[in-house]
Amino acid sequence: MSLFKIFSKDKKESLDKGLEKSKESFFNKLGKAVAGRSSVDDDVLDELEEVLITSDVGVDTTVKIIERIEARVAKDKYLNTDQLNVILREEIAGLLEENNTTDGTDFSLPTDKKPYVLLVVGVNGVGKTTTIGKLSAQFKKAGKSVILGAADTFRAAAVDQLILWGDRVGVPVVSHGMNTDPSAVAFDAVKRAVDEQVDIVIIDTAGRLHTKVNLMNELTKIKKVIQKFVPEAPHEIMLVLDGSTGQNAFIQAQEFTKATDVSALAITKLDGTAKGGVVIGISDQFKIPVKYIGVGEGIDDLQVFNKVEFVDSFFKKI
After folding, report:
1. Structure pTM?
2. I need a labelling partner for 238 at 20 to 30 A (CA). Which of 17, 70, 103, 265 fits?
3. Which residues participate in the annotated binding site?
4. Is 6 exposed, middle or buried (0-12, 13-18, 19+ CB in 10 A)?
């Protein structure tokens, strides 16, 4: 099956455009690293290591990639620098293939879980509430019914912003306002979803990276109340990370994965930065599926992550 039958032309163009800054920065650095060199030797590999680390791929993942390329060099004896782009592409694709990364093409939901309960976590400022709004729009476009729960009650802007998104997209929002009990909001949102046979309920949770104990306690309480209606809920806990923060996104991922059972990732704001390599590193280091990526401001610029398409766009010749 052709890549382009899986991914629509518009989506592919949006992805190409969203990764433009990352790609240009990466290939500019790579070009300088191999300038005047004909073969892939130790000096080139040292330069490549620096290129990958400064492209926010992360130290541990960079070491893995370099080791793979060293193995290729040893096996093939002589590799020229013209082949380096192809080898890098193949090894990064292989790394993503080995990790627990989805190959999504659409905004679908399991048919045997209704309502599908999605808890969304992440610090303030990463685009958490915006991601929920865009997700709800995409699910609605796919013919699914959606309810939102405004359980980030410690920040007035979060509640108001989610209500605005609900109005904009045309989906109901369960809200008790600011400084109310988040678990009570989650309770009412899931109860309504069950009563009205809604397909998916998305619950926005506190955007403060408070102590892990507080975070765990809060999420545990939310889980307990929603399990009164849907015993196996939540079906998914999604962590939203801001790709433009580079290595800071790694730190946030570490903190949240220690505090709760994160089962999916959304990496936002990749279009405004040259730090797209963070997707490769985070996918490799945490072995949690990168489910969605944000490559622009528009609703359709929140895409289901597809590793084949991502690598294809990242390594497409400028």
Report:
1. 0.90
2. 17
3. 122-129, 204-208, 268-271
4. middle
